[in-house]
Amino acid sequence: MAATVNLTVNASGAAAAAQNGQVVVIVDVIDMSTTCEAALDAGALAVYGAAPDNARCPVQINPQNIGEIAGRRAVEAGTDIVLVAEPRVGSDSERLNTVSKVVSGIKKSGARVGAVLPNLGAETAKLADLKGRVLVAATGTGGVAYDAAVTAGAPAVLTATVARTMQKKGVTPAREGARRALAAARDLNTGITVVAATANSLEDILAAEYLVKLIIMGQA
Q: What span, in angstroms and rounded, lies between the C-alpha atoms of 100 and 26?
Protein backbone atom coordinates (compact mmCIF):
# COMPACT_ATOMS: atom_id res chain seq x y z
CA MET A 1 0.00 0.00 0.00
CA ALA A 2 1.29 3.48 -0.86
CA ALA A 3 2.46 5.62 2.02
CA THR A 4 0.47 8.74 2.88
CA VAL A 5 2.46 11.92 2.26
CA ASN A 6 1.86 15.19 4.07
CA LEU A 7 3.42 18.63 4.17
CA THR A 8 3.72 20.87 7.21
CA VAL A 9 5.85 23.67 8.62
CA ASN A 10 7.84 24.57 11.74
CA ALA A 11 8.99 22.55 14.73
CA SER A 12 5.38 22.25 15.92
CA GLY A 13 4.41 20.55 12.65
CA ALA A 14 7.40 18.22 12.93
CA ALA A 15 6.35 17.25 16.45
CA ALA A 16 2.75 16.60 15.41
CA ALA A 17 3.90 14.36 12.53
CA ALA A 18 6.16 12.47 14.94
CA GLN A 19 3.30 11.92 17.36
CA ASN A 20 1.33 10.45 14.46
CA GLY A 21 4.09 7.88 13.95
CA GLN A 22 5.26 9.19 10.60
CA VAL A 23 8.69 9.44 9.01
CA VAL A 24 9.65 13.11 9.32
CA VAL A 25 11.74 14.79 6.62
CA ILE A 26 13.27 18.15 7.57
CA VAL A 27 13.83 20.70 4.78
CA ASP A 28 16.04 23.68 5.66
CA VAL A 29 17.60 24.61 2.33
CA ILE A 30 19.68 27.51 3.72
CA ASP A 31 21.48 25.72 5.18
CA MET A 32 21.03 22.83 7.61
CA SER A 33 19.57 20.15 5.34
CA THR A 34 21.96 21.11 2.54
CA THR A 35 24.87 20.81 4.97
CA CYS A 36 23.61 17.34 5.92
CA GLU A 37 23.23 16.29 2.27
CA ALA A 38 26.76 17.40 1.51
CA ALA A 39 28.01 15.47 4.55
CA LEU A 40 26.31 12.30 3.33
CA ASP A 41 27.87 12.86 -0.09
CA ALA A 42 31.24 13.12 1.62
CA GLY A 43 30.78 9.76 3.34
CA ALA A 44 29.46 10.76 6.76
CA LEU A 45 28.27 7.73 8.72
CA ALA A 46 25.15 9.55 9.93
CA VAL A 47 23.70 13.05 10.24
CA TYR A 48 21.55 14.48 13.03
CA GLY A 49 19.95 17.81 13.85
CA ALA A 50 19.69 19.47 17.24
CA ALA A 51 18.49 22.70 18.75
CA PRO A 52 21.03 25.31 19.91
CA ASP A 53 20.95 26.54 23.48
CA ASN A 54 18.92 29.68 22.70
CA ALA A 55 16.16 27.87 20.78
CA ARG A 56 12.61 28.84 21.67
CA CYS A 57 9.68 26.91 20.25
CA PRO A 58 6.20 25.88 21.42
CA VAL A 59 7.01 22.15 21.58
CA GLN A 60 9.49 20.12 23.58
CA ILE A 61 13.09 19.82 22.44
CA ASN A 62 15.99 17.96 24.03
CA PRO A 63 19.36 18.75 22.45
CA GLN A 64 21.25 16.88 25.16
CA ASN A 65 19.41 13.72 24.16
CA ILE A 66 20.32 14.28 20.51
CA GLY A 67 23.94 14.63 21.57
CA GLU A 68 23.73 11.33 23.43
CA ILE A 69 22.08 9.53 20.50
CA ALA A 70 24.68 10.79 18.04
CA GLY A 71 27.48 10.13 20.51
CA ARG A 72 26.44 6.53 21.03
CA ARG A 73 26.39 6.01 17.27
CA ALA A 74 29.91 7.43 17.05
CA VAL A 75 31.21 5.30 19.94
CA GLU A 76 29.71 2.14 18.43
CA ALA A 77 31.45 2.90 15.13
CA GLY A 78 34.75 3.90 16.73
CA THR A 79 34.60 7.40 15.29
CA ASP A 80 34.05 10.97 16.48
CA ILE A 81 31.52 13.78 16.15
CA VAL A 82 31.65 16.67 13.72
CA LEU A 83 29.59 19.47 15.22
CA VAL A 84 28.05 22.08 12.92
CA ALA A 85 26.92 25.23 14.66
CA GLU A 86 26.41 28.95 14.26
CA PRO A 87 27.40 31.74 13.82
CA ARG A 88 28.51 31.17 10.25
CA VAL A 89 31.24 33.79 10.70
CA GLY A 90 33.03 33.41 14.02
CA SER A 91 35.40 31.23 16.01
CA ASP A 92 35.02 27.63 17.13
CA SER A 93 34.69 28.83 20.72
CA GLU A 94 31.81 31.13 19.75
CA ARG A 95 30.04 28.22 18.08
CA LEU A 96 30.62 25.91 21.04
CA ASN A 97 29.16 28.54 23.36
CA THR A 98 25.83 28.24 21.52
CA VAL A 99 25.52 24.44 21.78
CA SER A 100 26.56 23.50 25.31
CA LYS A 101 23.53 21.21 25.76
CA VAL A 102 24.37 19.15 22.69
CA VAL A 103 28.02 18.96 23.76
CA SER A 104 26.93 17.82 27.22
CA GLY A 105 25.05 14.90 25.67
CA ILE A 106 27.98 14.00 23.43
CA LYS A 107 30.31 13.92 26.42
CA LYS A 108 27.83 11.86 28.44
CA SER A 109 27.87 9.22 25.70
CA GLY A 110 31.64 8.98 25.86
CA ALA A 111 32.10 10.36 22.35
CA ARG A 112 34.51 13.11 21.34
CA VAL A 113 33.92 16.26 19.29
CA GLY A 114 36.61 16.07 16.64
CA ALA A 115 35.73 19.18 14.65
CA VAL A 116 33.50 22.26 14.90
CA LEU A 117 32.33 23.68 11.57
CA PRO A 118 30.07 26.54 10.42
CA ASN A 119 26.71 25.86 8.82
CA LEU A 120 27.50 26.75 5.21
CA GLY A 121 25.48 24.27 3.21
CA ALA A 122 27.41 22.43 0.50
CA GLU A 123 30.59 24.33 1.36
CA THR A 124 30.74 22.82 4.85
CA ALA A 125 31.91 19.49 3.45
CA LYS A 126 35.06 21.19 2.13
CA LEU A 127 36.22 22.18 5.60
CA ALA A 128 36.98 18.73 7.04
CA ASP A 129 37.19 15.07 6.09
CA LEU A 130 33.72 13.77 6.99
CA LYS A 131 34.10 10.17 5.81
CA GLY A 132 32.98 7.69 8.46
CA ARG A 133 32.19 10.41 11.01
CA VAL A 134 28.92 11.39 12.68
CA LEU A 135 27.69 14.92 12.01
CA VAL A 136 25.39 16.89 14.31
CA ALA A 137 23.97 20.15 12.94
CA ALA A 138 22.84 22.27 15.89
CA THR A 139 21.06 25.09 14.09
CA GLY A 140 18.26 27.52 14.68
CA THR A 141 15.55 26.27 12.29
CA GLY A 142 16.33 22.89 10.75
CA GLY A 143 18.08 21.70 13.89
CA VAL A 144 15.17 22.76 16.08
CA ALA A 145 12.60 21.04 13.84
CA TYR A 146 14.70 17.86 13.75
CA ASP A 147 15.09 17.93 17.55
CA ALA A 148 11.34 18.45 18.02
CA ALA A 149 10.55 15.44 15.83
CA VAL A 150 12.97 13.16 17.70
CA THR A 151 11.74 14.40 21.07
CA ALA A 152 8.12 13.74 20.05
CA GLY A 153 8.98 10.13 19.21
CA ALA A 154 9.24 9.98 15.41
CA PRO A 155 10.19 6.49 14.19
CA ALA A 156 12.67 8.10 11.79
CA VAL A 157 13.83 11.66 11.15
CA LEU A 158 15.62 12.47 7.91
CA THR A 159 16.79 15.56 6.04
CA ALA A 160 16.42 16.55 2.40
CA THR A 161 17.21 19.49 0.15
CA VAL A 162 16.74 20.72 -3.40
CA ALA A 163 20.04 22.61 -3.41
CA ARG A 164 23.02 21.29 -5.33
CA THR A 165 26.01 19.88 -3.51
CA MET A 166 29.57 19.15 -4.57
CA GLN A 167 28.48 15.77 -5.93
CA LYS A 168 24.84 16.31 -6.92
CA LYS A 169 23.13 18.83 -9.17
CA GLY A 170 19.80 19.42 -10.84
CA VAL A 171 17.02 17.27 -9.45
CA THR A 172 19.41 14.66 -8.02
CA PRO A 173 19.61 15.97 -4.42
CA ALA A 174 15.83 16.11 -4.14
CA ARG A 175 15.41 12.66 -5.70
CA GLU A 176 17.87 11.21 -3.22
CA GLY A 177 15.97 12.76 -0.31
CA ALA A 178 12.69 11.39 -1.66
CA ARG A 179 14.26 7.95 -2.10
CA ARG A 180 15.46 7.89 1.53
CA ALA A 181 12.04 8.94 2.79
CA LEU A 182 10.25 6.25 0.78
CA ALA A 183 12.69 3.57 1.89
CA ALA A 184 12.20 4.48 5.55
CA ALA A 185 8.42 4.59 5.21
CA ARG A 186 8.36 1.16 3.59
CA ASP A 187 10.63 -0.31 6.24
CA LEU A 188 8.48 1.13 9.01
CA ASN A 189 5.13 0.66 7.24
CA THR A 190 4.07 4.23 7.92
CA GLY A 191 3.49 7.57 6.23
CA ILE A 192 5.76 10.52 5.51
CA THR A 193 5.55 14.17 6.51
CA VAL A 194 7.84 16.65 4.79
CA VAL A 195 8.52 19.64 7.05
CA ALA A 196 9.52 23.09 5.85
CA ALA A 197 11.72 24.02 8.79
CA THR A 198 10.20 27.48 9.08
CA ALA A 199 7.10 29.05 7.59
CA ASN A 200 9.13 32.25 7.25
CA SER A 201 11.33 30.80 4.49
CA LEU A 202 9.62 30.57 1.12
CA GLU A 203 12.50 28.47 -0.22
CA ASP A 204 11.81 25.82 2.42
CA ILE A 205 8.09 25.73 1.63
CA LEU A 206 8.63 25.49 -2.13
CA ALA A 207 11.31 22.83 -1.66
CA ALA A 208 9.05 20.82 0.65
CA GLU A 209 6.22 20.99 -1.91
CA TYR A 210 8.57 19.74 -4.62
CA LEU A 211 9.78 16.88 -2.44
CA VAL A 212 6.21 15.84 -1.70
CA LYS A 213 5.55 15.64 -5.46
CA LEU A 214 8.69 13.53 -5.98
CA ILE A 215 7.70 11.16 -3.18
CA ILE A 216 4.21 10.73 -4.64
CA MET A 217 5.67 10.14 -8.11
CA GLY A 218 8.10 7.60 -6.62
CA GLN A 219 5.13 5.49 -5.51
CA ALA A 220 3.40 5.54 -8.89
A: 23
